Amino acid sequence: MPLFFISFAMTIIGIIYFAYGAKVKAHSRNEFTLGGRKANSWAVSGAITGTLVGGASTIGTAQLAFLYGLSAWWFTLGAGLACLFLGLFLARPLRESNVETIPQYISRYYGEPARVAASLFTGLGMFVQIVAQLLACGSILAVMFQLSLQWSATISTLLVILFTLGGGMKAAGRIGLIKMGLIYATMLYAGFLALNHAGGWHGLHETFPDYPWFSFFGYGVQEGLSDLLSMLVGVISTQTYLQAIFSAANGATARNGSFISALMIFPLGLLGVLVGLYMRQSSPTMISALALPAFISENFPASFAGIAFAALLIAAVGTASGLALGVSTTLKIDILRSWLTGNVAELLYFRVLTTVVVLMAFVLLLLNLGSAIMDWSFLSMGLRGATLFFPLLFAVFLHKYHLRRAGALSIFIAPTSVIVVGMMQRVSISPLYFGLCVSLVIFAAGFLINRHIH
Which stretches are transmembrane (predicted)? Predict the structure, then answer.
C-alpha cells in the first residue's frame, strides 16, 4: 500500500512540476490563451487529447463495455472521427483566420450581437461540464482515499486550478502528451492483462454471444449513431478543442495535429472494451462503474497501480482544466475584451477569471446540486452544438451566400430552444437534436429567402 500512495503522489507532483516549468510558463496573455501561436503538431495534438480524453474514454468505456460489449467503442471512435473531420475540413481555415475564439470567428459573418450570444451560451455549456468533471474527479479520490465528497471535491478543485494557471495553453500541449503517455501505458497493460485472463478472443467468444456483445450496435443502431453524431458536434462546437487549433504555428501544423489526435484516440476504446468484457466475465454482479478501477486494483502491481490511478485522475482533471480555460478565454475575448489591456494586466486577469470560473463550479457542486447537474449535463452538449455547429460550418463553407441574419437568429433561437426542451421532462427528443433541427431550419429558410430576393 505505501508503494501505491508513493507512486500516486509522485506522478501527480511530477505533472504539476511540468505545468509550472520555466519552458511552459506563460509570460503574456497570448502565451496563456494561445501558447504564442507557436505550437507544433504534437503540441496541438497534446492540447486536444489532453482535454478530449477524460474519464469517459477510460472508466466510462470500460463501464459501457461491461454492460453492452463492443458498442462501448463508439465514444472514442466518435472522438477520433471528429478529430479527423477537424483536420480534413476545418483546421486550416480556422487557424489561418488568426482569431482566438469561435464566436470571434463567426462574428465576421453574423455580427457582434451574435458573438456575445454565442459566447454566453457556449460558456454556459462548458461550465456545466466543468461541474460534472469536478464530480468525476471527486468520485475517484473518494473511492481511493475514503474521503467525503466535500473534501474530495475541494482537492479536485485545487488540482484543476493548479493545472490551469501555470502555463495555460502554452503548457497544455506538453501536459496533454504526458497525460496521454500515462493513459496509454495504463490501458495497454490493462487491455493485455484482460485479454490474457479472459482466455484470449476465443475465451471471450465462448463466454459471450456475438450479439449484442460483439456488435457495434449492441445497445441500438439509433443510439450508436447518436453517440457518433454527438461527438462530432461536440468537438466542432467547443472552444477548448478549437483553441488548440488556434494555437498552432500555421494551418498545416493545425491540420497535422488534428490527424495525430485522431490516431491517438482511436485505439483507446478497444482497450477499455477488453477490460469491461473481462470484468463482466469474471465478476458479472459488480457495479459497472467500478470495472476499470477494480481491475487495476486487483491486477496491477502496487507501484504501477498508483501511477495508473494518478493517470485516471489527471484525465478528468485535464478535461476540467481545458474547459475552464475555454470558458475564461471566451468570456474575456468576446464579452469583457475592453477590460484591462496590456500583457501583464491581461495575463493576471485571465488567471483570476479562470480561477473564478472553477471556484463557481466548485460552489455549485457543494450546494448539493450534484445530482441536478448530472441530470442537466445533457444540456451542455445541446447548448454548444445548437449554438455553434451549423453557424460555424456555414461560415466556413457557405459564407458566399451572405446568411448574416439567419446565422444571428440561429445563434439566439436554437440554444434557447434547447433550454426550453431540456426543462420539459416529458419530451423524448434529445435537446441537442432539437436545437440542431431548429438551427438548420433557420439557415434553410434564410437560404431560400436570399435566393428568392436575388
Answer: 6-22, 42-66, 72-91, 116-145, 151-169, 181-204, 224-246, 258-280, 300-327, 348-370, 376-399, 406-425, 431-449
Which residue has better confidence, 227 or 324?
324
Residue 166, Cβ neighbours under 10 Å: how many?
Answer: 23
| DSSP string over 375-404 | HHTHHHHHHHHHHHHHHHHHHHHSGGG--H
The mean pLDDT value of the chain amounts to 88
pLDDT of amino acid 338: 64
CA distance 208 to 220: 18
At residue 373, the pLDDT reads: 46
pLDDT value, residue 81: 94
CATH 1.20.1730.10, domain 2-368, yes or no: yes
> C-alpha grid cell for residue 326?
475555454
Is residue 316 within 8 Å of 136, Cβ to Cβ?
yes
Cβ burial of 454 (10 Å; 0-12, 13-18, 19+) is exposed
Max avg pLDDT among 26-35, 111-120, 144-153: 111-120
DSSP class of residue 248? B
Closest C-alpha to 316, from 108, 144, 103, 159: 159
What is the pLDDT averaged over residues 404-427?
87
Check residue 338 and report its DSSP letter. Answer: T
Residues 6+ apart with CB under 8 A from 201: 195
Mean pLDDT of 152-177: 85
Write the single-letter amino acid at 109. Y
Q: State how far Cα 411 lies from the chain centre.
A: 22
What number of helices (H) and strands (E) belong to the chain? Answer: 24, 0
For residues 353 and 350, give the distance between their C-alpha atoms in angstroms, rounded to a whole number.
Answer: 5
Neighbours of 288 (CB within 10 A): 15
Contacts of 404 (CB under 8 A, 6+ apart): 109, 110, 111
Tell me what pLDDT residue 372 has: 46
Average pLDDT over residues 211-216: 92
Tell me the pLDDT tens digit for each residue of 124-134: 989 988 887 88
Which H or E run contains 47?
helix 41-52
- Amino acid identity of 23? K
pLDDT of residue 117: 95
Among 321, 335, 336, smallest CA distance to 240 is for 321
